[in-house]
Amino acid sequence: MESVDAPEAEQAKALLRQAIYEHRRFLNPVPTSVGGWETLRKALPLYLRNKEEKSPRTPLGPFRTDVSLYGTPPTSGLRLTWMGHSSTLVEIDGMRVLVDPVWDQRASPLRWAGPKRFFAAPLKLKDMPRLDVVIVSHDHYDHLGEWTIRNLAKLPALRDTEWVTSLGVGEILEEYGVKKRRITELDWTQSIGDASLEITALPSRHFSGRSMFNRFETLWSSFVLKGPKHNVYYGADSGWWPGFKEIGDAYGPFDVTMLEIGAYNELWKDIHLGPDGAVRAFEELGSKGLLMPIHWGLFDLAMHGWRQPIERFCELADEKGIATWIPEPGIPTEVVRETALRSEWWR
After folding, report:
1. How confident is the model at residue 7 (pLDDT cuts 50, 70, 90)?
2. Which of 47, 160, 168, 332 is deepest in the core (most CB within 10 A)?
């Protein structure tokens, strides 16, 4: 296991602070073990013995986004289109924000190998409506797709779009065709924006690297999207950590809280929440508004069955009386305050 810890003196400070960068590596906000070659060795026998339905046996979809709906602003002021996994188009108080776009066929550096999409993207990139902001939380392939970024960067509709990301990731975006002047890198607790939309990067407990050999060289973040009337928390990738309560206290309450539930396992519990961790984090964040599960339903990235995270999540949410927001992929769906939604498309 590879341990990447913050110095003890720093751990004693408030958890919501700018990132620590030492020896050309960013550090997690709390002591964190990230799997290395030893984790792969332990995981391999589990993969070989696994009999779960890790990918759908029958084709999913097709899912289709009605692009004409974007011509009419949401009455409530908040509308989300979940494209699968973590990719989401957020319309908030008159602004459009695309979060962690991955339209690539595989969450992998290779075109011919690696986790493949369970279903085609509901919205073709060429049909993407005008965007105000694209957010890229970190550099992993299931959050930053090269093919996707290269094609988004060419779209006339995105000529004036601002790109917001974590420290160090801007260089990758620029390599893939995004204009440097359009890129803003944020450290944890830094913000960009104005009264129409303020975006704040906050700590998460994860890691970065597009290979086994460049981990921690760029930063990973969660984000708050705050408009005049609505407030959304995008948790991105994170394991459980006590900073969730501080985030809720300082930046909440949230109308929608987006937390990851998939691609988890005991071997890497420090860096992914899973359903149980997501529900616990939501409670620490204040248990306000709607809880939206992300990071599931599109790629096979762990050893659990592909439906297992969402089934467990729904079970826990029902037990605790948590209002969930689970739309069908690709459907622009208006968020009405405190009104739960559960499409159960996976069944």
Report:
1. very low
2. 332
